[in-house]
Amino acid sequence: MKLRTKLSLYSTLSKLLVLVAFIIIVPIIISIVSTQHTDNRLQIMKDKVIKIVNKVGIKEFLQEEQDSIFASYNILKEEYISIEATEKVMPVVQFENTQRIWDDETVDYRVLNVTFRHAGHLYMLEIGKSLAVVKELNGVLQKVAFFVLIISFAITILLNIGYSNYLLRPFHQIIEKKLKSVDTPEKFNFETIPTTTADFVYLDQTINEMMHKIKDTFTREKEFISNVSHELLTPISVLQTRFENMLSEGKMDEENAIRLIDSLKTLNRLKKVTNTLLLISRIENEQYLKNDSINMLELTSEVVSEIEERFTSKNITAIIDFKDNYQLKNGNHDLLFTLLFNLVNNAIKYNVEGGKIYLRGMMRQGTFILEVEDTGIGISNEQIGNIFSRFKRLNANFTEGYGLGLPIVRTIAEFHNIEVIVTSEPGKGSVFKLLFENNSKMS
Asked: How far apart are CA 334 and CA 28, in angstroms?
């Protein structure tokens, strides 16, 4: 999982937990607040009633026929006021939830009870507010709070995602420009990525230092291989010439002649390895030109014709099946011939007696694909990761070659910006796909 996804997921989950907690807590808080608000309103109404009584007198409120009780409520029964003569003193204001019956209807109220004196007499004042109104206020406040929470949650999530993307942009630039898009040390990008985050600055500097070390090591290795390969060719050629001259003189016995012939074979193999390493080094140093226009069908036919004797010796059938032909511009004919020759040669080497090799050419979504498929022993998943490594053979049972055929294929493919994809199944064969950049044309 990507770091950006983890940060966004963590932020979302943490805010979701906070949201759930608020959804649980907010109704309780709102209930308390609305109750306190109702009690405050009842207190204000109590003060106003007592103020009016003190101003106009108690007789204005008491009924003529029953001069000790006064009661008044609005038509919707949302509020009521009751004044009643009493002899019991209530030391403090009391609040309670209770029921009152008005016109044969039972109504739930939040009630304030208090006693007060007027003109030497003690009265009980009772003010009530319908709990239905309180619950309605409760519901409105909860809805408002819920919508505010949801909107706040959505806004903070969007802001967090946007900020995370902005914050991690230098990190993704480091990955894309310096690690993912670079396949060879020569193409390393040492450009400093602009960022104000100290961790990313340190990461960028560390990667730059590492890439400098890798490039220096790689350059020294290429120079070493090139120099050693070049220097080895001269003594190898001298030894070859001396051995051939000794054989041509005919002065040695048969046993020594056989040993000398074996030595010549060893020198020939050593010379091939040296030439191969020198070829790889020259390709990596871009010492070859790419100014040829190559017809892929003609090149494939040329390779098959060149290696026809090996097909015959192993009773293998080569099948060329081009649905689309392709003209590669700006390539090197000799190098591409070597690339395809090595692929076909490997397909023969690891094929079975009487097997087949299919060479296909086709266009897929604007990309030309050249396939080399064999019906041979196949490659295990463990081996596929190492097949392009130098001096590693696909199968230890085969002593032919020194494991440089496929490394040459990869080097030439990279030189021409060709992608190589390998699929294989042990016992059924392998498929090597060459994907050409869309910089050429069909023919």
From this structure: 83
Distance in angstroms (rounded) separating the CA atoms of residues 286 and 275: 16
pLDDT digits (tens, 9 = 90+) for 36-63: 888 898 999 999 988 888 888 887 777 5
Q: Are residues 280 and 298 in the same domain?
A: no
Query: In this structure, are 252 and 333 located in the same domain?
Result: no
Provide the terminal-to-terminal Cα distance of the chain, rounded to the nearest Å: 45
- Answer yes or no: are the C-beta atoms of 331 and 417 closer than 8 Å: no
Count the Cβ atoms, other than its own, within 10 Å of residue 127: 23
Q: Are 244 and 297 in a shared domain?
A: no
**Closest listed residue to residue 176, CA positions, set 191, 196, 198, 197:** 191
99, 80 contact by CB (below 8 A):
no
Question: In terms of domains, do 279 and 379 share one?
Answer: no
**Sign of the torsion formed by the C-alpha atoms of 25, 29, 34 and 35:** positive
Task: Please state whether the predicted TM-score (pTM) of the whole model is above 0.70.
Answer: no
The token pair that represents 284 in the structure block: 């990596």
Is the residue at 428 inside a domain? Answer: yes
Whether the CB-CB separation of 131 and 108 falls below 8 Å is answered with yes
| Spatial separation of the C-alpha atoms in residues 429 and 423, rounded to whole Å | 9
Which residues are registered as beta bridge partners of 292?
331
**One domain for residues 278 and 207:** yes
Structure tokens, 88? 């019991």
Q: What is the pLDDT of residues 76-93, one digit of tens each?
A: 678 888 888 888 888 888
252 and 332 share a domain?
A: no
CA atoms of 411 and 292, how far apart (whole Å): 18
* Within a domain: 104: yes
Q: Which domain holds residue 336?
A: 292-442
